[in-house]
Design a protein that fits this description.
Layout: E1 3-8, H1 14-26, E2 31-35, H2 42-51, E3 57-65, H3 70-76, E4 82-87, H4 95-102, E5 111-112, H5 117-132, H6 136-154
Parallel strand pairs: 1-2, 1-3, 3-4, 4-5
This protein binds 5-O-phosphono-beta-D-ribofuranose.
Length: about 160
């Protein structure tokens, strides 16, 4: 099975980015998570992105906060799909992260998710949906997850005071 890479700018991003990992784990998708910093380890970033396909990854989830250049710079060095996760920053609540990730120039794509935990979880879901294109077990798991979620909402019934 193709693997999914999860990278993040700092270990401080892990509480957010582990939501992507948990989603992938739920669907039985193999993943590897590591810190790769656009600013603190720029050479590692290039090496990681350029060798990701030969290492068996089919998609990359990249999370960063503040001046969040990691997803875009990874996308610049690979043709694999990159899902960018804006991590909530202390100073600006993640708006800086979001704008840093989402405003890519035409021709280099990053699929940008929501700020914080929901975005990271949805990045995991999207990456699982990529894997599901080639893997029937993951496809069935994604469909079952969506159905269970719908059933839960429908079962909530009328709300009373
Ligand atoms: C970014 O700077 C990281 O992605 C993180 O969100 C932010 C703060 O990093 P630390 O100072 O906590 O290592 O590069």
């Amino acid at each position: 099975m193709a693997k999914v890479a999860i990278v993040m700018g700092s270990t401080s991003d892990w509480p957010t980015m582990q939501n992507a990992a948990l989603m992938l784990k739920q669907f039985g998708v193999e993943f590897e998570a590591q810190v790769v910093s656009a600013h603190r380890t720029p050479n590692l970033l290039v090496e990681f992105a350029e060798t990701a396909e030969e290492k068996g990854f089919c998609a990359i989830i990249a999370g960063a906060g503040g001046a969040a250049h990691l997803p875009g710079m990874i996308a610049a060095h690979t043709h694999l799909p990159v899902f960018g996760c804006p991590v909530k920053s202390k100073a600006l609540n993640g708006l800086d992260s979001l704008l840093s990730i989402v405003q890519m120039p035409k021709g280099v794509a990053v699929g940008t998710l929501a700020i914080g935990e929901a975005g990271a979880a949805n990045a995991g879901l999207l990456a699982a949906q990529v894997v599901a294109l080639q893997d029937a077990d993951v496809r069935d798991a994604v469909i079952a997850f969506r159905k269970a979620q719908t059933d839960t909402v429908l079962a909530s019934g009328k709300l009373e005071l």
